[in-house]
């Protein structure tokens, strides 16, 4: 069981079960949404996610057709995103989780559009675009 919350603590949740590998996304939308060179996401089945408090604080934004980004309307913390093409999956922001994670990064996505000021110095597979592209490393 994992627990997490937003910066102000108004939104609290838990995740049952083990976590999938962390997905690192370098696309320009994730950079803007996080204010960082990449987003660290963990795909979680909706059935494993329980919102404990803060439903009234949840707001969402459709950043591209079929993709919604959910955040806390009080503190602005990005919480997760959903895609119509991946029904039933929440992409939880890894930095929200309270417990130490056994899960480690498993893939770098959209490295073709990564921030020019951020170098990737790991041996995690890199994809210039999404999973449909060939790894560059």
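-> sequence recovered:
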């Amino acid at each position: 069981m994992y627990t997490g919350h937003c910066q102000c603590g108004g939104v609290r949740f838990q995740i049952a079960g083990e976590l999938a590998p962390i997905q690192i996304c370098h696309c320009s939308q994730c950079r803007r949404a996080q204010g960082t060179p990449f987003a660290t996401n963990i795909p979680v089945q909706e059935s494993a996610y329980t919102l404990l408090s803060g439903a009234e604080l949840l707001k969402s934004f459709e950043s591209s057709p079929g993709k919604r980004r959910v955040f806390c309307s009080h503190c602005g913390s990005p919480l997760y995103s959903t895609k119509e093409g991946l029904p039933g999956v929440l992409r939880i922001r890894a930095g929200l989780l309270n417990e130490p994670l056994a899960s480690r990064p498993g893939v770098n996505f959209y490295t073709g559009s990564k921030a020019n000021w951020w170098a990737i110095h790991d041996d995690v597979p890199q994809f210039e675009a999404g999973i449909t592209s060939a790894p560059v490393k």
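The beta strands are 2-5, 12-15, 22-25, 39-45, 49-53, 58-64, 67-72, 78-83, 89-93, 105-109.
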